[in-house]
From TrEMBL:
The keyword Cell division applies. This is Cell division septal protein FtsQ. It comes from the Bacteria. Keywords: Cell cycle, Cell division, Membrane, Transmembrane, Transmembrane helix. The chain crosses the membrane at residues 40-59, 71-95, 135-156. GO terms for biological process: cell division.
Length: 160
């Protein structure tokens, strides 16, 4: 005996869709949060390697037989690469912050419809001072600038 398939109500299908969409949004928010730490790890690893390479060139220039100009150019090249890495990681973190804001806005819209209006308050962009991403970007930019200042004021002048 064949029975026709039972049709689910539109509200049941809509509720399932809202739940799946909500899970997806929460997953994306979590992914954006995890990516920040990945970018920081990339920066820290490459900053250590490139900064260490610059110090190695400085310390070994005479034993390697490098001219002063070659040693200076090598150090500046390594710091330039470090700067590019720092700017790239900062840009990725900033874009992640914008994505996070967008997903939170979407989450608020979804919960306004599914639960009740005002269930979740949208994030206030003026609270950026409390976001850890702000301080990670500040750390990346400050440490990159500090390495340039120290290199230009201490390292390069002592190469003769």
């Amino acid at each position: 005996m064949n029975h026709p398939p039972l049709e689910r109500s539109t509200s049941a299908r809509s509720g399932e869709y809202e739940l799946e969409r909500y899970r997806y949004i929460l997953q994306q928010l979590n992914s954006v949060n995890e990516n920040v730490h990945r970018y920081l790890t990339v920066y820290q690893t490459l900053a250590t390697a490139l900064g260490g390479g610059a110090l190695l060139v400085f310390a070994s220039r005479t034993s390697w037989g490098l001219t002063a100009a070659t040693a200076k150019a090598s150090i500046i090249g390594l710091l330039s690469l470090l700067t590019l890495v720092g700017l790239f990681c900062s840009m990725l973190i900033f874009v992640g912050m914008l994505s996070w804001l967008d997903y939170r806005r979407e989450e608020c819209e979804l919960t306004d419809e599914a639960v009740y209006p005002g269930f979740r308050k949208p994030p206030n962009r003026r609270n950026f001072i409390r976001w850890h991403e702000t301080y990670i970007i500040a750390f990346i930019l400050t440490s990159t600038i500090l390495l340039w200042v120290l290199t230009l004021s201490l390292l390069l002048p002592s190469i003769t």
